Amino acid sequence: MPDAAPAARMPDLLRPRGSNQVGMRQFNERTVLQALRVHGSLPKAELARLTGLSAQTIGLITARLEEDGLIVKQSRVRGRIGQPSVPLALNPDGAFAIGVKVGRRGAEWLLIDFTARVRERHAMAYDFPDAEALLPAIAQHTHRLRDGLGPLAARTVGVGLAAPFLLGGWHRTLGLSKAQSDLWNGMDLGAEVRQRTDLPVIFARDTVAACVAELVSGRGHDLKSFLYVFVDTFVGGGLVLNSHLHGGAHGNAGALASLPMQRVRGAKRDGDTAPPQLIAEASLWELEQRLQREGVDPDAAYDERALQPPFADATAAWLASAAEALAHAIASGTAMLDLADVVMDGSMSRPLQQALLEATRAALDGCNWEGLWRPQLHGGRVGAQACALGGAMLPLHANFAPDHDVFLKAG
């Protein structure tokens, strides 16, 4: 029988490992933790090979990480030549983080553990967020998730907040008043959340957070560089280059919603006289409007009813229009970036995501690829929780990853 894995000692508080601390020992600790995060359980000899650290250094680091409750020993592996090896793995209870997604149709809260597994989820739906209701709810659910951990609550390292840069943007499309739009566009949402919790808060654009989740827990394991497309109430995206998230000059790289759909022909650049953007063709908002015009429940855009009667006809028309617009965006991105891969995901049901992938691949067949190499289009693996999950991963990264950009992926 294999030896039973000994219980890990769990200190009451985490030793600080914030990004403001520097030093080779901290970097090496984070490198070991990242190797375990990417490759799963590993014996010390394999950790030394992967990280390039000496066996003695690995021994010292793993002893310290085990003492801090961040890693655990697993059962001995026998049956090989030499001494039985003892694999090490991340301790799921070693640290926790909370992800908060604030969207135009709803909010979501996730509690994840040190292995990025979702432990608990809360959700809140609305037609459009009301600040007086939403801000207290953010504090309430955040405190509830942390307090629900009991003695482990002190091991919560932070909150990752994922939301659009301009939540009140495109107010005419949404049918909002200018006052509603100005309220949200003038608000520093990150600062508002920080005032309501004593946990560190990290902000990221919602589709950038979704891209982080795909990079760490999805296609990022296989693809080195890709354009990321996330079809939500409004469409958006992100950009991964050499296994790192590329933010751009303003943190807005991959802002596909604003991609123009036609040439400017002397039109004024104000309001509806400007050329249409991708947001008007490939967002679930547009599918909502089609369903509403048919007199059926527009919320079906986000669940499996979308492909069933009486919703199927409106959805089929949306798929055709959205696929052509997405193919245009992908071809434009390919011309600029010369990427071999595109990953598409969204907050719709998995059957609708698959239908959109197939329709977009067919639309790509009709693009003019002369002078370009056509990229391969992949489905995302994370799904509707990508924004909140990516948000929750950001505090774990800030405290435990060796790379200050985003999630260094082991070779």
Task: Describe what you observe in this structure.
The structure is a single chain. By secondary structure, the chain is α/β, with parallel strands linked by helices. The protein contains 13 helices and twelve strands. A hairpin with a 2-residue loop joins strand 9 and strand 10.
Task: Write a brief caption for the model.
The protein starts with 23 loop residues before the first helix and ends in an 11-residue tail after the last helix. With 411 residues, it is an alpha/beta fold. Helix 1 packs across helix 3 (55-67), helix 2 crosses helix 3 (55-67) and helix 8 (206-217) packs across helix 13.
Spell out the key features of this protein.
disordered C terminus, 5-stranded mixed beta sheet, disordered N terminus, globular, 13 helices, 411 residues, alpha/beta
Secondary-structure map:
Layout lengths: L23 H16 L4 H8 L3 H13 L3 E3 L14 E3 L5 E7 L3 E7 L5 E8 L5 H17 L8 E8 L7 H4 L3 H8 L3 H6 L6 E5 H12 L8 E6 L3 E7 L2 E2 L33 H4 L1 H10 L18 H26 L3 E6 L3 H16 L10 E4 L6 H15 L11
Parallel strand pairs: 3-6, 6-7, 8-11, 11-12
Antiparallel strand pairs: 1-2, 3-4, 4-5, 8-9, 9-10
Helix pairs in contact: 1-3, 2-3, 8-13, 11-12
Strand content: 15-25%
Given the structure, what is the number of helices? 13
Largest sheet: 5 strands, mixed
Task: Tell the overall outline.
Answer: globular
The N- and C-terminal alpha carbons lie at a distance of 34 Å
Structural class designation: alpha/beta
- For the biggest β-sheet, the strand order reads 5-4-3-6-7
What is the average of the pLDDT values? 88
**Quaternary organisation of the protein chains:** single chain
Roughly how much helix do the residues carry, as a percent range? 25-40%
Low-confidence stretches: 1-9, 18-22, 406-411
Secondary-structure element order, as H and E?
A: HHHEEEEEHEHHHEHEEEHHHEHEH
| Total number of strands | 12
